[in-house]
Amino acid sequence: MLKTSHERPDRRLRGVAEELTNGCASYIRLVKGTGGMGAGRTRLDRERNKLCLRDVEYIGKEAKKVKAMVKPSVLKENLSKMKSLHSKLKGLCDDPQHSIPDVFIWMLSGPKRVAYARIAARQILHSVREEECGEHCGKIQTLFLRLPGKKSLGLSGWSIQAKVDIYFWFGLAKNKRDFLKGLPQGYKAIRAGNSLKAPPKTLNYPDRLQFELRAHMYQARGLLAADDTGLSDPFAKVIFSTHTDTTQVIEETLSPTWDQTLIMPNITLFGRAEELRDDPPIIIIEVFDQDTVGKNEYIGRTIAKPVVKMSHERYEEPRFPSQLDWYQMYRGMTKAGEILAAFELLQIKGKDQIESTKVTEAIQTSQGHKFTVPKGIRPLLAKHRIEVLFWGLRDLKRVQLISVDRPRVDIEIAGRCVSSCLINNYKKNPNFAEPVKFIEDVDLPEVEYWCPPISITCIDCRAFGRSVLVGTHIISNISKFVFRPPDKSKIYTGKTLDRLSNASEFYITFKQLKKLVNKNKLCFFRVSLDLNLDDEEKKTKEDEEDPLDEATLDWWSKYFASLETLNEEKSKMDEANIQDVYNDDEDQESIVPSTETNDHKAKLAEQVGVVKQAKKSLGAPVRKWKHKKLPIDELKIYDTELENSNEFSGFNDLLNSFDLYRGKREDLADDITDQKRIVGNFKGAFKIYRHPLPHYVEQPDPQYGMFKGLPSNEPIHVLVRVYIIRATDLHPTDPNGKSDPYIVISLGENKVNDKENYISKQLNPTFGKAFDFEATFPMESILNVQIYDWDLLSADDLIGETKIDLENRFYSKHRSLCGVAEKYAIFGYNQWRDPMKPSEILKKLCKELKLDGPHFMPGKVRVGNKTFQGAIELEDENGHKKPTEEHVALVALRNWEEIPKVGCKLVPEHVETRSLYNSEKPGIEQGRVELWVDMFPMDMPLPGPPVDVSPRKPKGFQLRVIIWNTDEVLLQDDDFFTGEKASDIYLKGWLLGDDKQETDIHYRSLTGEGNFNWRFIYPFDYLVAEEKCVVTKKESMFSWDETEFKIPPRLNLQVWDADHFSADDFLGSLTLDLTRLPRGAKSANKCSLNMAAEDDDSSNVPMISIFKQRRIKGLGWPFTAKNDQDELGNHSTFGGKVEAEISLLTAEEAEKNPAGYGRDEPDPLEKPNRPDTSFVWFMNPLKSLRYLICARFKWLIIKVFIALLLIALLVLFIYSSPSWIMKKIVGA
């Protein structure tokens, strides 16, 4: 769907996904209706039933997702997803334990078994339901017999041993009446005996149809190399029914043009004419390489079906003559090339039946006579002119143990050939002296689909007239080299629109407006112009509001600002894709009732929420505030290789690189394994166009053709400056999961090894290096950047490497010598680094491209019919302004693609990201490296010193955190004496992980309030641009070097309950990002969990950066604690408040104004005013009696004492009352 020109392939894919979803739903419904997952006689059946049901449900859900996500922009990704689902579904069809054995067909020669074929029983199994039948049940199929055992492997097993047309039916005995229904009608069944139930012994077809097959074999392309030279001597063999025929042999080519019609008369076929017309037998085409010694070597095979003409039909359009088509050949699982052919099957009833369809007369060749392809079938040819640019050869390897010294290149297409001049000394100069040659009046098909390939052959001319083949390359698709003249009507329309889009200020009358063809262009231009003006006004306002100190800026400021812009663009694209999916799904479900639509929207919103949550948990901390972006000049950061960007089309506008191959191609070889066959590289280009060109098109130059303005290919000296910024995601090579990377750069014989400056234990190192090389193109044009892992005892390991072809960049029209900056400046972090000023570059481009201009005016410049505007003043270091033309010239260069005909995108100031690969692990990315390359010709003024890209050194800071009080802290313990809730509160804090500090303990807090007046001090090193703290330390005592870690600046505070005889209890935590710090509550009542929320939507608290404000005090930041009732731990509870003061000082300021830890000198803090109940009970028994017993049970003790006193008095009264009474009675 992607390669063809079918309209809206996304709709077709959506239809396939919908059909798959419905099929899965139907299967699930049938399985559950017949017993569900528990159905089956054995445990294996039941478990397999569960597996199938689970996988089919998964496939159905995924297909539904693909249907919702199908968009033209992501069609390839969705197509690969559907392919994986197809392979998964196909895997379910294979039963792990077949209950029915497979069917074997053996071909015997006497007692010896010669060849066989194996057919799976499920392919021929019959069912009363047609969709459940095997794919070959009740059908005539063609089987290819193969050699048994190990003989089927290798060359001997590829070719066909025998071809059998066979009819299979395998089913239940009660359905045997259906076994002959698939046979061609018109037969008489001859049975053994008189039993009607027995199967027929033979089938007799009284009516036999006679046919003649015509195989029009035109050409082939991209065949596999079968000889050691990298070529083949191919011929094709056509097999149909019981007939075979072969084409003639074309020697030493991978793209043969046979132009031969093979005729096979008197072919007898059985069955009804209508069935044969609709479903004819297949044709087998095999291609072999002819060898003078030994057997012919098999190259590949394909199958085709002919176009059938019955006797009562006329040989006329639209079905006849049949059209040529490309057929893909395979050798095993490997693609072996393509064949351009057409096949016709004509019914014969009499001798004169096909006179009207006679083929062309036979022509005599060295191999005998042959019939050429008839005119109606062969492609319509037209005269073409082919211009070949022979630029040079690169990296040629030894051939037959001798280095290549005098090579030449032959170009062949459609039987016409042109040879380059001879390179007399390859080592001295590998370029050709005569770069452009022509092939006149080449007959090529008018339809590009049928065009033959271009064959590139490199030959080394050696002593005594010997010629040795070095390597070959086949260009199968030549469409990218075809020049198509523009439509005459579009040329004049384009001029009108160019004039319109040119003017930044224009006045237009109503009469002129009526003459314009496309009025929407005008409206769009005016709207976009107004928007641009508004944006400029906003920018100027922002610049005025936020002045910037340029003295503090450097190249890294520009880099990180550009990196932030790149991340914003990616996030916008992700949001746009999600919105497109939502809108597309909304359109599809518009006919669904509202309840279902709302449910679907809710599910989609839930899925998007899950994605956001995953990004939060896996990625960087979410920004909870939108800070104003500083007006810093930026550069362009490419997330891929510069040549892979669509803007520059691989820098192949002048030169193309073609790999030269030699030797046989291995089985199951791909592009990666084929690298071993590469013996060199040919650099050149092709221009193919119909000749003569229309008169309104610019005519080619007599000497250089369409390669006008071709630069000289003589050797040139160039200063190459390579900037290596950083590497990311390097593959670990050490046992500890890290690497010690360093850089090795080579350009020709020049090599720089930066082993001394390796970075210890890093997978994302920042190098910040610049290297200068003096090279000579073309001998030294491949830049090789390698990253090695340093090892103390063993040899260093190659992590990965990337290669850059500097020559293609150097000669490209996109001017990748030195990137065009966003603004022109003569000082500061954005200083212009190209030795040529923008005006000089503009004049040079206009001269080379023969453009009118540049014509400078105050604040304007005109190039051709295009006018650009820009600033008119330039500021120097002293603040003085003077008039200049450089700003407007730079605007013209930045918008050079707007120049009609010759305009293109110029390479901006940039950083490109290149993938690293290792030959020992082919095709697997080993990491990425960010770099850029500048090139300066030595015959031009040399540039200034390189840009300082050395890594920023972290700046020393000291963070001081004063913990004043806590409030509403959770009460964890129960008092031993009183049973009251209480906590012994203390706080822990750290910044870098290994710098934990603790306050003293506030004992017996009954209300959750704690008083501390305690100071934490955290010295640290900080990178302002990256917003990361830098920690350098040894990972272990056995580490050889210190390792640098970069961690986000986050202050962590925890509140704990101290226990003397058990582990301390955790009460709550608070994490504060120092770059996005929530402003503390002004009062304790306003402190809530909302201040600790990480989501932008749920937190409306203003954010500040401690690195800007330097000091902040808050009466409340909330502690959060885990909710015990929440099993997943997604929800938190309120764990208390902390009143703190946070201040940040530079290392110099901290040295001038020292402060002590805790409450120590200097600058001591007052002791907290804690309540009298704050003490340890077993350390102060008297206080315990006073505060724990007396304070609480004072009145109870008094009451008990009075009661005891009264009881004692009563007891004494009772005890003494008898004697007192006796005395009174006696009167003593």
CATH topology call of the largest domain: Immunoglobulin-like
CATH homolog superfamily of the largest domain? C2 domain
As laid out across the biggest beta sheet, the strand order is 47-46-45-40-53-52
CATH architecture of the largest domain: Sandwich
Q: For the CA atoms, what is the radius of gyration?
A: 43 Å
**Poorly predicted segments:** 1-5, 492-547, 585-626
Describe the structure.
This protein is 22% helix and 32% strand. The N and C termini lie far apart (137 Å). It is flat and about 170 Å long. Helix 1 (9-33) runs parallel beside helix 3 and helix 2 packs antiparallel against helix 3. Mean pLDDT is 82; it is low at 1-5, 492-547 and 585-626. It has 1228 residues and is of the alpha+beta class. The strands form 15 sheets. The chain has a six-stranded antiparallel β-sheet with strand order 47-46-45-40-53-52. Strands 41, 42, 43, 44, 48 and 49 form a six-stranded antiparallel β-sheet that branches. Strands 7, 10, 13, 14 and 15 form a five-stranded mixed β-sheet that branches. It has seven domains: 9-33 and 42-93; 103-204, no CATH class; 208-351 and 361-372, Immunoglobulin-like, CATH 2.60.40.150; 381-485 and 657-690, Sandwich (Immunoglobulin-like); 715-819 and 911-943, C2 domain (Immunoglobulin-like, Sandwich), CATH 2.60.40; 955-1179, C2 domain (Immunoglobulin-like), CATH 2.60.40; 1192-1227. Residues 195-320, 367-492, 698-819, 941-1088 form the C2 domain. It is a single-pass membrane protein. This is C2 domain-containing protein. Its main location: membrane.
